[in-house]
Amino acid sequence: MKIATFNVNSIKARLPRVLEWLEDAAPDVALLQEIKTVPEDFPSLEISGLGYEMAVHGQKSYNGVAILSRTPIEDVVMGLPGDDEDTQARYIEATIQGVRVASIYLPNGNPTDTDKFPYKLDWMDRLVTYVRDTLIPQERPFVLGGDYNVVPNDDDVYDPEGWADDALCRPESRARFRAILNMGVTEAWRTLHKEIGAYSFWDYQRGRWQRDEGVRIDHLLLSPQAADRLVACEIDRVPRGKEKASDHTPVWCEISDAA
DNA sequence: ATGGTAGGTTCCCTA
């Protein structure tokens, strides 16, 4: 079972790129972020034409997450529990072939001297609580994929000093990310790869892609029961090099069939 | 110290 995460930066603007990626990479499950549209305007015909079902949690203009799957999607939950006032579409969760999967678009948090940063930290606290109190006790396989907007450590950014005060690198953000890992959750790519300087996002500005100056912020987090079945995890740089590319590139993992 | 790019909306915001 191949599960991929991809921040597409607008599903409408990116549709040709997303369709060719689905055909080339052929994930069984695709976790999308920043679709930037409402469910009614999601390009369901084109995507179902490639054999995918979908569950969409969207809003106008900003944010928005979706789950695509070649096999049935069950028990969909939209929105991260813990704050009924939060209207931003950043979390969707469902069961596919017995695996609980989520597509996460974690708040960016910049600039850090505005209310955006405490919103990010509060959102992360809610995620920590939900994973600890609800998902972990289920003792089932889960894969939480998405744009976490967290650089786990200085090996995952091209210029650690220059980024030290950015919300993606701040110790408050990293501590909350680690709080999830400390529950026995596995970050799939880092567990299987030791190299430094591997990225999943390159800013559109200042030739960051051409200079390979990026950050690794798109992650797949696995429960112990899913990590038992982890056989591969890779960053697919091909989509980032195309015309009209997203500023993120997909990350995927392969989970073996249940014993 | 600033600006560079992309995508959305609406005469500016988010990343």
Structure, described:
The protein has 259 residues and is of the alpha+beta class. 25% of the residues lie in helices and 24% in strands. It is built from seven helices and twelve strands. The protein has helices at residues 11-25, 44-48, 116-135, 160-163, 171-181, 188-192, 224-227, and strands spanning 2-7, 29-33, 53-57, 65-69, 74-78, 91-96, 99-105, 142-147, 186-187, 218-222, 230-235, 251-255. A six-stranded mixed beta sheet has the order 3-4-2-1-12-11. Strand 1, helix 1 and strand 2 form a beta-alpha-beta unit. Helix 3 (116-135) runs parallel beside helix 5 (171-181). The mean pLDDT is 97. It binds one DNA strand of 15 nucleotides through loops.
